[in-house]
Design brief:
- This protein has seven helices and two strands.
- It has a two-stranded parallel sheet with strand order 1-2.
- With 210 residues, the protein is mainly α.
- 15% of the residues are buried.
- The chain has two domains: 7-60, no CATH class; 72-197.
- The protein starts with 6 loop residues before the first strand and ends in a 13-residue tail after the last helix.
- Helix 3 (72-104) packs antiparallel against helix 7 (163-197) and helix 4 runs antiparallel to helix 7 (163-197).
Length: 210
């Protein structure tokens, strides 16, 4: 500002422009973010100095088409939504590994229960991990609302379960529980940002509920 600079043009290159943008946004500058594809320079020797000179020339003549830059709350919300995808994918992967381990033990639980890690399936798997191997006792853990019959459950739970088959599901269930907590925290943070965007933010925001 001391040198009379009121407009600043930046080229969007990866994520490297963001920290500089955040700092400059706190000032009184008019910022313009340029799409790299729209401000390509002529062929020749390419340096940062040449690029900066070219951007300054384009900006001085109003030839830069500004890219949309969302406000801080929207940026944070977008980041949270993208971050949530990773633990959701990881959870699905761990669930598949639990099913493969059960299949290896000749436990056909997924053939009679749609959600293997639902209330009934989880209770049976945890009982298997704890050392129970009697199909009748395992089947009795099913919730009364489960559509599968006790006979079908007993047939599905009759397998050859070793110590190895008990260890792996325990490992995966611990990972799944941790991922559920991460998703719940992310969901709570996303709702907080959404309330801020909606103009209904509260000063006494409750903590995350798992």
């Amino acid at each position: 500002m001391q040198n009379g600079c009121t407009h600043i043009a930046m080229e969007a290159t990866g994520i490297y422009w963001k920290p500089v943008w955040h700092i400059l946004a706190d000032g009184e500058f008019q910022l313009v973010l340029a799409n790299s594809a729209h401000v390509k320079n002529v062929l020749g020797r390419k340096t940062d100095v040449n690029d900066a000179t070219w951007l300054a020339e384009l900006s001085a003549h109003g030839l830069i088409r500004a890219s949309f830059v969302p406000n801080t709350h929207t940026q944070e919300l977008r980041t949270l939504m993208r971050t949530r995808k990773q633990p959701v994918r990881e959870k699905a992967s761990h669930i598949l590994r639990v099913q493969k381990t059960l299949e290896d033990a000749n436990i056909k639980l997924d053939s009679v229960i749609t959600d293997v890690l639902g209330m009934s399936g989880r209770a049976m798997i945890e009982a298997l991990i704890a050392g129970e191997s009697d199909p009748t006792k395992l089947a009795s853990l099913a919730n009364y609302r489960l559509k599968a019959s006790q006979q079908n459950l007993r047939e599905a739970l009759r397998g050859r379960v070793t110590t190895h088959h008990r260890f792996l599901p325990c490992l995966h269930l611990n990972q799944i529980d941790a991922l559920d907590v991460a998703v719940a925290m992310n969901r709570w943070a996303s709702r907080s940002r959404h309330r801020a965007l909606s103009g209904r933010s509260r000063t006494d925001i409750d903590g995350p509920r798992y």
